[in-house]
């Protein structure tokens, strides 16, 4: 298993914790598909990985959008900073998926997930999402005071 659910920090909003756990399940599944493709490369296995990458990417867009809607609804002061983090990371993910679709290199995508995606997700939860969840729950932000 690439990452354990217990590796994820929890935040003050359940909907965020739930989607983070879904992220981990998807990343572990994608990693398993990449291992299978590396062990037995075939057009079908590549297509399975590519299709799952698109499913994961769509899920990530939905994940980020769910947080952004709540940040806008509550007028979260550093909304644009948080959204920019999301947008930048989505662009990176898209580029890596496109690279895989062009070169079919499972090892490169596995490394990206293990060395970039998982650490980014954990760090993002510890920082941006923790502050955001506190604001959504209590109307208090350590960086901006009361709502």
TrEMBL record:
SUPFAM superfamilies: Hemerythrin-like (SSF47188). CDD domains: Hemerythrin (cd12107). It comes from the Bacteria. Residues 15-131 form the Hemerythrin-like domain. Pfam families: Hemerythrin (PF01814). The keyword Membrane does not apply. The keyword Iron applies. GO terms for molecular function: metal ion binding. Belongs to the hemerythrin family. This is Cation-binding hemerythrin HHE family protein. It comes from Actinobacillus delphinicola.
């Amino acid at each position: 298993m690439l990452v354990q659910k217990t590796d994820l920090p929890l935040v003050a909003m359940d909907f965020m914790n739930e989607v983070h756990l879904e992220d981990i399940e998807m990343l572990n599944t994608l990693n398993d598909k990449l291992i299978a493709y590396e062990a037995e490369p075939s057009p079908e296995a590549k297509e399975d990985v590519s299709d799952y990458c698109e499913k994961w990417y769509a899920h990530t867009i939905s994940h980020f959008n769910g947080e952004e809607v709540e940040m806008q609804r509550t007028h979260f002061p550093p909304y644009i900073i948080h959204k920019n983090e999301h947008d930048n990371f989505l662009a990176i993910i898209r580029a890596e998926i496109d690279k895989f679709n062009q070169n079919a290199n499972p090892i490169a995508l596995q490394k990206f997930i293990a060395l970039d995606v998982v650490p980014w997700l954990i760090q993002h939860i510890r920082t941006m999402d923790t502050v955001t969840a506190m604001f959504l729950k209590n109307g208090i932000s350590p960086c901006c005071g009361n709502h």
